[in-house]
Amino acid sequence: MAGRLGDRRGPARLLVPGLALAVAGMAAMALTGSAAAVIGGALVFGAGFGVLQNATLALMYDRAPAGGELIVSAIWNTAYDLGMAGGALLAGLVVTSAGYPLTFLLTAAAMLPALALAVKER
Questions:
Q1: What is the largest CA-CA distance in the chain?
Q2: Each residue of 76-109: pLDDT tens digit?
Q3: 84 is in which domain, residue-wise?
Q4: Is the sign of the CA dihedral 21, 23, 24, 29 positive or negative?
Q5: How many domains does the structure of the chain reveal?
Q6: What pTM value is reported for the model?
């Protein structure tokens, strides 16, 4: 669905909604006393994350010179994998002292600066 919307309206227009969903979902998961909030938050976060995966890769392809698709794919996948690994490592270190609710809130807060860049990109 994100791909279809990106094709129709441009992938840059999906950055703000994708980030907003990811931030809202992560913040909702901080409500660990409620199974519904955690599960719902995970679903909302996942939807936003999926939109962002599609939109960022499509933006990179759009900006690459003809024949640069392999390089774009390598850069995007490397950044994705390193980001996931680094984020998981950092979250694991924080969660041991701060707990899950605060770790989820800190993660949501860490995504907020990207909203300013996404707004500028539109």
A1: 51
A2: 999 999 999 999 999 999 999 999 999 999 999 9
A3: 2-121
A4: positive
A5: 1
A6: 0.90
Residue 14: which residues within 8 A CB-CB, separation 6 or more?
Answer: 2, 5, 6, 51, 52, 54, 55
Quick one: three-class SS letters along the chain? CHHHHHHHHCHHHHHHHHHHHHHHHHHHHCCCCCHHHHHHHHHHHHHHHHHHHHHHHHHHHHHCCCCCHHHHHHHHHHHHHHHHHHHHHHHHHHHHHHCHHHHHHHHHHHHHHHHHHHHHHC
Six-digit token string for 81 = 């994998």
Q: Which two tokens stand for residue 112?
A: 């907020």
d(CA 71, CA 67): 9
Tokens of 85: 């690994």
